[in-house]
Amino acid sequence: MQILRGPGGLVIAAGIGALLSCALLAYAFSWRVRGAIQNRIAHADAVWGVVIAGAAAACLICLAVLAIAATSGTWTTRPTAYLGLLVLVFISAIPVVLVEFGLRPGAAADTAPVRATQGPEASRLLVVSAHPDDLELACGGTVARLAAQGSHVKVLVMSSGTVGGDPAARRREAVAGAAVLGVHDVTVLDFADTRLADHSRELIEAIEAVAVAFRPTVVLTHSEHDQHQDHHAVNRAVVRACRQAPTILGFESPSATRAFNPSVFVDIDGFLDLKVRAVASHVDQAGKPYMTAARVRGVAAFRGTQAKRVHAEGFEPVRYTTSLQEASL
Ligand SMILES: [Zn+2]
């Protein structure tokens, strides 16, 4: 403790405080929020970016003041300086607390009608799709339901859909559509639209990087029974990249072939309106026949009939791991 009373004590403490603050802020900037910040078009994510930037700025100001005080020797009230360091670390910890407890801005937006406890079977859900709008059309109800139940949902879109529309608008609408479903962790990559199969190795590497960091318990992606070449390429890449995931389910895009034959169904009653709203977020694609509310509701009713429910979404399992008591997908 003697060194803390000496002239160099404050400098050492300031250094430790700076390191700790940097570590906390680095964590807050980590993969759990990076996607949302990169796509900060959505209002909620912009607010979240401001929170982090504000905390970082506060830390820098504190550090500068402490450094001047420590080196000039003019700051004689050393306890006040140590208190300042404590404040610095506390401010740095705020974004971390917000991330860990899901309190970041917008996390509670579009609250779905059911909010149950977090189920272990879907505590980390990764959705990998080829284009903006694939998620909303194929599994929007399931994603909304799991997000409402407290699962951490991460979305990875491999291309911005340049061939099928305006890439800037589609990127923006991917974030907006996910937000309607209660999901704010969306990353849109820039693989060449309609040519994903030409980059299968890079696809696998990009998805694997996310899978290794995120460790999803459930992965939703395109079915192998899909006539769109990009959807098929993403299916192949996910099966390889997510080889450690206990559950991988293939979802039903409008381009699914007649061979698509689901054996896992998710009851989405109560979440269908959110799904319809999310699909409607894709204004750029509004002219496509499968984007209509009637078509979306019709598919949900058909799969619901098969599942002995009112509305459902169907999935083809690559593998499906569950304990029967917690089969709450
Ligand atoms: Zn697609």
Automatic annotation (TrEMBL):
InterPro entries: GlcNAc_PI_deacetylase-related (IPR003737), LmbE-like_dom_sf (IPR024078)
GO MF annotation: an example: hydrolase activity, acting on carbon-nitrogen (but not peptide) bonds, in linear amides
Keywords on record: Membrane, Transmembrane, Transmembrane helix, Zinc
Signal sequence segment: none
A family per Pfam: PIG-L
TM helices/strands, residue ranges: 46-69, 81-103
Biological process (GO), any one: glycoside metabolic process
Domain of life assignment: Bacteria
The protein's name: LmbE family N-acetylglucosaminyl deacetylase
